[in-house]
Amino acid sequence: MASKVNIVLDQGTTFNTTFTFTDVNDNPIDFTTYTGASQMRKSYYSTDAYNFTVSLANSGVVSIGMSANNTTLLCPGRYLYDLEVTDINGVKSRLVEGIVTVTGEITR
Known about the structure:
The protein is mainly beta and 108 residues long. The protein has one helix at residues 68-72; strands at residues 3-4, 7-10, 15-20, 35-41, 50-56, 61-66, 77-86, 92-103. A hairpin with a 5-residue loop joins strand 7 (77-86) and strand 8. The N and C termini lie far apart (40 Å).
């Protein structure tokens, strides 16, 4: 089951956040053989999606990010997101999901 983590993203700025994952023995999960994908949408049924870049490490750290150029294109408001990884056998797991609140940019 995915962890629930809500995040705030400031429109017009570079966004990056990290998550750390460990196994049942509290050892970092090695994600070097995994691929990752993360998107945000206005609703579960929305066809418009905004992609996060995903960085996976052998230390259990997974980062998602978006450039300032891309966050400028977002309308302020509430979105949904998730972060999924796929192992070398094709097994897909959702690690994190939640709400993204995009705050509007004043300085342009």
